[in-house]
Structure formats: structure tokens, C-alpha cells
Description:
The complex is a heterodimer of chains A (484) and B (522). Chain A is an all-alpha fold and 484 residues long. In chain A, 75% of the residues lie in helices and 1% in strands. Chain A has 19 helices and 2 strands. Chain A has helices at 14-32, 39-59, 75-101, 107-125, 129-147, 154-185, 190-198, 206-223, 231-238, 241-266, 271-294, 299-320, 323-351, 366-369, 371-385, 391-405, 409-435, 449-467, 470-479, and strands at residues 64-66, 71-73. By secondary structure, chain B is mainly α. Chain B has one domain (8-521). Chain B has helices spanning 8-25, 31-55, 85-104, 113-132, 136-145, 147-157, 163-196, 203-207, 213-230, 239-246, 249-274, 276-302, 307-326, 331-362, 373-376, 378-392, 398-413, 415-440, 457-475, 478-521; strands at 64-72, 77-83. A two-stranded antiparallel sheet of chain B has the order 1-2. The radius of gyration of chain B is 23 Å and the shape is globular. Chains A and B meet through helix 16, helix 17 and helix 19 of A and helix 5, helix 6 and helix 7 of B.
Amino acid sequence: MDLVIPKIDALSLCPELVLSITAMLVLLVTVYLPKGRKDPAAYVGLLGIFIALMSLTLLWGKPRYAFNNMIMVDNFSIFFNMVILVTAALSILMSITYLKEEGMSHGEFYALILFSAVGMMFMTAGANLITIFLGLETMSISLYVLAGFLRDSNRSNESALKYLLLGAFSSAFLLYGIAFIYGATGTTDLKGISEFLSRATYMKDPMLLAGMGLLLVGFGFKIATVPFHMWTPDVYEGAPTSVTAFMSVGVKAAVFAAFVRVFSHALWDLQPDWNQLLWILAVLTMTLGNVIAIAQTNIKRMLAYSSIAHAGYIMMGMIASNELGTSSILFYMLAYAFTNLGAFGVVILFGRKGEGNLDIEDYSGMGFKYPVLGLLMAVFLFSLAGIPPTAGFVGKFYIFSAAVKAGYIWLAIIGVMNSLVSVYYYLRVTVMMYMKDPVKDLEGLHWSPSMIVALIIAVAGTLLIGIFPSPYLDLAKQSVLHLM
Amino acid sequence: MNQLDLPILTLLTFLPAIGALFIMLSNKEGVVQIRWMALVISMANFICSLPLFFCFKADYTGMQFVEKVPWIKEYGMTYFLGIDGISLLLILLTTFFTPICVIACWKDVTKKVKEFMMCLLLLETGMIGVFVSLDLFLFYIFWEVMLIPMYLLIGVWGNPARRVYAAIKFFLFTMFGSLLMLVAILVLYFYNHSVTGEYTFNLLKLYELNMPSLYQTWLFLAFFVAFAIKVPMFPFHTWLPDAHTEAPTVGSVLLAAVLLKMGTYGFLRFGMPLFPVATYQFVPLISILAIIGIIYGALVSMVQKDLKRLVAFSSVSHLGFVVLGLFALNVQGIQGGIIQMINHGLSTGALFLIVGMIYERRHTRMIADFGGLAKVMPVFAAFFMIVTLSSIGLPGLNGFVGEFLILLGTFRSNVVYAVFAATGVIFAAVYMLWMFQRVMFGEVTKEENRHLKDLSLREIGILASILIFIFWIGIYPKTFLSKTETSVTHFITEFNKKYEACIQKEKNYLVLNTSEELITKK
Lengths: 484, 522
């Protein structure tokens, strides 16, 4: 057997390398920092993210395979990496004061976020099922730890354990699926799979279909589609809020990137098979997510169910199976990143020490007591509900137009009706904020500079993408142009 | 065409929003200052809107004061504004009523004045935006954006008991319709692309599209639901009484005067010209719903105990007239419909203001709590009387002109509809006069009513400025009708031309198909 030593193409991995090195640097730095004053570690992390973001621009527009076809660096992965990096940066910004208040200011937190982001980036760039799996595991293992980071909190521990157990299951499903597909096609290389399937002689193999189904389950777990969503509310509720924010956007972005790459490209010839499945899953996911969200009293749980529903909308873009559909997923992810992170930012800020204010009722009277914070929350909620002039509206508009273009008019109608349902529970928060009198003492909000920066970035993104979507739509479109 | 060479429509649309921004930055405590700011901004906007009226070329058929800037080029979205005779008066109505509302709530609104004025001004931006947009995407954005300030107006400053319920109901009902419309817009957009190969939301280009009738039916239905909810037509009207009753006075005024007109305007601007075949198909259904609305609204008004609810249901009845007129599909009907939109805005707006004025004094709106007010408040009684008569449609006042034209138009297209609709005029006299009698005439039965203050100068000023137009339209409607005439005539000819074209196309298609069948059979 020949041992092929792959050409080391460090440039292709530049962002990932920068991020990994930064993560280790953070670990190193944190040792020398006095206890409880670990802020510099976060700044080191932010600097690393910034450099990684810059290095992404080097790779833009030059699609290539690297490391023996294990890695695919194209605009598609770069776009998702951008979303992931922005998510990581905002999450870190939101965590600094939060962790201090919770008495958990450890440098490892930032390192874990960075490692997790590296995993996500490998997933988006995975050109081989194995790479995707490795990325997924790197991401997940860091997240298991992060979910339980508030080690004195029972909820946080429960969250971590639940996530670990169910995550392990889902990884097993995914791995099993990979094995089946390898068995049926003889390769784990995405291009190889697609070539194998497009050969005219090929007959539909039950093993292949089973593999596809298992992959669907594996991915479905991670992006929390119904019926694989059970873990989401508990994990999202128990995890530290900044981690929840990070998970709700970052994981979705990474897994959707891999999902699209595997299904819409490698398994393209099975499209008629998986499309119907996805159709049903999308409708279930949207509907269940939205309907159950109505009944929630805790805002983190509500946002968890809303994030389930959003996964359903995004799946519509996959079902549309056209260029517009894929680019709409990218655009939606970007819009969703700013919006959802912003909403969680407000939740963190308003939750205050010990996370005492997480019930929707606690928001009573907040809009007039803290007009700026109230306005921000309103913008984020309206964006989540898809009301113009926000990013969320353009995102939804784009996704629905992809569905309509592909002829899925009923799916689009179900989608818009779902967003009607979602309007109800998002409005409920604004009702609390503006139309009820305070039930609690609302004093003691701690505005930290890092949080202010994060919120400004989030709201600027939400409104800018909503009012002048043109450049971002272009970016999303270019990102799927050379998709291989 | 843009005769002013100024982006006047942009200015009109965004001046209030910029004003709202300034108010946001001002000090919360300076309540008086904030009120003055709002007044100055809305007055400035009204003054800016006057050139529209005076420079409007009444004999020009196309869009005027046009502004067109590409916005999202690749997907064919343009920032495309323009008005014609159909929208001109509605814009003026909006800019006219906003300063009136600011003055009307001068004493009324005392809590959270800053936010209130911001909502009011943002609402104005949304309303004008809806009337000036000629790009479907842009239109949809304004249509939705407008919901938020109205929702807040009802929900924050409404009656404490049921305001949240009313606000959410308002929001969800409207949103339901508009989301269906969104899907229809998308279908239209992609259909247009499949035919012409061009992605565009430009309304004027979409007008040129001749769609098969099956498409038209479905798309029309989706648009219809959105607009019918907004109008509101029977049976989609249930949100209206709640919203009106719970909203603060000026919220009700704007809701009645402007927001409801968006539904009827929508029919005229989008539903009908885009889908003429479907429009003809649905004339019977819509006319019957409109007549049901007219009679049902009137009957329900009769039994209301609450003044505001009574006026709210009278809106259902009046807007039934408007819709009936529009769907008569002739010049008189549509012109009557347009002028009646304005009339309803003026008289119902004034009625809500009047109800607000006595509510401010007595903190009740129950008819039973009043009686004999004419003796205590003679000036108020005079104004109330004139507005009531205008709402009934007394000749010489504005309501008569609109109703007369509508009935004339309807009579020409369908006698039966006209006969039934005419009964609505009688019912209107019944419920309005009866209400007026119970509130104003007779002995003063309640001790609290004996010492009510008559109208202040501020209130007289508000009502008098509305009365000017009530008389003007009633006595010399030509000033306003002449502005709409060309556009309406043009609308009708284009509409019929397109209808013929669609039918012809369908026939050709059928012939083609049958001949193909014959060939294949052979």
C-alpha cells in the first residue's frame, strides 16, 4: 500500500490555523493572568478572530481542494466561516462581563469557543465525510464543556449531560450513515460519491438510502429539526446564555453548510428521495417549533423553540434545490446570526447576576424603563418575526421566493402562516416590554463596554442588511456560484 | 414624469421619520417641546404636500412626481415612487390628518408623550409610503412597517382593560392577509419572469402582464384577503370594532381616516388592474359581501351602546359603499369610491374626534350616560350635528356626493345591487340620528353632565378645519373630482383593454389546444 503524503497547503487552512493557534495562546496567556481577571484572554481571542476574518478575504474567489481532497475551500465555506467567526466574536464580547458576574471568568471559556469555531469551520470546508465528522466532533466536544461551564448550577450541568448523551447518539447515527454510504459507494469523498451516483449503471441500493436516512438523522439532531429536537429547549435553557447564543447560530451555520454540501451536492442524484423527507421535516419543524414556543414562559426556552422553527425555514431553502435556494440559506444564516445574537445579548444583559430575569414576565415595563434596550429588543424580535425593515424580513422573503420559484407554493404558504404564528409570541415580549407595568425591580443593569459593542454590531447588522440588502445578497449569490 | 424636479415624494415620506428621530433624541421631560416639535414636523409635511395638489396635472394619465432609483438591482427591486389621481387625495388626507391628530392629543395624551409622538410620525411615514410606492416590494415593506406603530398606539395608549387583546388582534389579522399577499406577489414575480425573462417588482411593468385566468383567480384571492381584512369587509371585519374601541382617540382617527383606505386603495391599485379577468369573476361575490357589510354594519350600529363602537360599525357600512362603488367598474362608481374614501376619512375622523372630546370630559362613551348635551354644550352640538349629517349623506355635505356617485355607478352596472345598497343610506340616517338624539337632545338626566365645558378654541379649530372640507366637497366637489377624473377614465380603459386581451389570449389558446388535439387524434 502506498502512503500518500498530502501536500501541505497551509494557506488554504490559514483561518483555521490562526484560530487554533490563538486558542492555544489564550490557554497559555490565561495561566499568567490573576484569578478573576481574565479579560485579556478574551481580547487575545478577539484579535485572533479578527486576523482569521482578514485571512478569509485572501481565499475569496479562489476555490480549491486541499489536503488530498479532504478540504474544500470555496466561497461557500468562506461565507459560512465568516458567519461563524462573527458569531464567535459576538459571543465572546457578550461573555466577558457575564462570566465575571457569574463568577466563572476563566480563560478556558474563550479557548473552548475558539476550538469549537475551528470545528465548525472544518465542517463547512469538509470535502470528505470524514472531515465533516471530525469537524462536528471538535465542535461538539467543546460545546459539551461549554454548556456545563457554570459548574455550580444544576441546570447547566443537566444541560451539558443531556447535550453530551444525545450528541453522542447523533454522532453515532451520523457515523453509521457514513459507514453505510461508504459501503454502498466505496468512498467517503463527496465528489467521489456524487460521481458514483451519477453513473448511469447505478441502481438504487437500499444500503445507500439507509445511509442517507442516517445522515439526515445525524444532521437533523444538530440543527434541531423535529422530531430530533427534544434536547434543544433543555440544553438552551440550562447552558450559560452566551453559550446558548453561540450554539443557536454557530452550530446551525456549520451543520447547514455540511448538510447542503452533502445532500444538495454529493447526494444530488437522490434528491427526489430526500426532498420529500425534508419537506415533511421542514413543515413539522416550523409548525411544532412555533406552536410550542407560544406556550413558553422562559425567554431562553422561547428562543430555543424559535430557533427550531428557524431551522425549518432554512430547510425550505434546501428543498427548493435551486441556486436561489442555496444562496437564500446563506443569506438567512447571516441575517439570523446578527438578529439572534442580538436578542440573546439583550437576554444576557437583562438577565443580570444569577440569571434571575429570564421569564418573559420579567420584561414587563422594560421598554420604558430602558428605552434603548427596549428598542434594541424590539428590533431583534421584529427581525426574528420577519417584519421589515429588518434583516429577518429580507431573509424570509428570499427563502420564500426560492420556494415559490421552485414551485413549492404550498410550502411557502405553510411557511408564511408559520411566521404569522411566530409573530404572536415575539409580539408577546413586546407587549410585556411596552404594555405592562413592571412586576419587579428593574434596577441594577450593568452596561459593560464589550456588551455595548456587541449589541451595536448586532443591531447595525440587522438594520443594515434589512434596508440595504443588495451587497449581502450579492455576496450570498457569489458564494454558491462555484460550489463544487 | 416629475414636474417639480424635486424628490418631493421621498421628502413627504421620510420627513416624519426624520422628525421622529429628532424627537427620539430630545429630552423625555420636555413634553411641551416634544408636542410642538411633532406639530411643526407634521405641519411642515402638510405644507410640503400642497404642491402635489397644485402642480398635479389633471389631464395627464401616467404617474406623476415619479422617482425611480434601483435598489436591489439583481432582483428587480426599485425605489419607485409616483402618484396619480387615485392616490393624490389619499396622500393629502394623510398629511392633513396627522397635524390634526397631534393637536387633538395635546391634552389627551399625558403619559409617554415622546414615544406617542414618535409612533404617530412613523405611522405617517408608513401610510404615505403605502400610497406612493409603485414597486410591489417597496409597497409591501411600507404596508408591514405601518403595522408596528399602530400596534403600539393601540397597545400602549389604549384602554387599559382590553388594549393588548385589541392590539394583537389587529396585528395578527392584518399580518395574516399580508402574508398571503406576499406569496401572491412572489408568484406574480416569478410568473412575470417566466414570461418576459425579466425580474421586476415594478408595478407598471406587471400591469402589462396577461395571465391565464386560473392564475388570476388565485392571485386575486390572495390579494383580496389582504385588502378585505384591511378595509374591512364583512366577514373579515371583526378586528375593527375592537381596535377602534380600545385605541386612543387619535389612533382611532388615523385608523378610520387613513388605514382603512389602504384596503380599498389596494383593490384599485393592485387587485383590479393586475387581475382583470378575476376581478370580473369576483364582482358578484364582492358586491354581495359589500352589500352585506353595508346593511349588517348599519344594523349592528343601531344596537350599540358604546359611541365608539357605533362609529366603528358605521365604518364597516360606509366602506361597504366604497367597495361596491369600485367594483361597479365604471367611471362614476370608481370616482365615487375614491371621493367616498376621502369623505369617510373626514366625517368618521371627525366623529372619532368628537367622541374623544366627550370622553375626555366624562370618561365614558356609553350613550346611556349622556342626554341633553345640546343645552350644556351648544357649540359642540352644532359641530356634532354637521358631522353627523355629513356621515348620513345629507345633500350639500360631502357624504352625499360620494354616495350618490357610487349608487349611480352601481345602478348602471347592476340595478339590484344599487337598490339594496340604497337601503344602507336609510339605515345610516336611523342609527346616526337616533344616536344623536339620545346623546344631545332631551333633558339633562345625569347630574355629571350639567356642568360640562363647551369646546375649547383648540377643539373648535380642529373641527372647523375638517368642516371646511366637508362643506367644500359637498358644495363644489369638482375641485377634487377633476383631479381624479383622468386617472379613473384611464384606469377603466386600460382595465377593459387588458381584460379583452386576456380573454382573447385564452380563446386563442383554447383554439390552439383543440386544433392540436384534433391533429393528434388524426
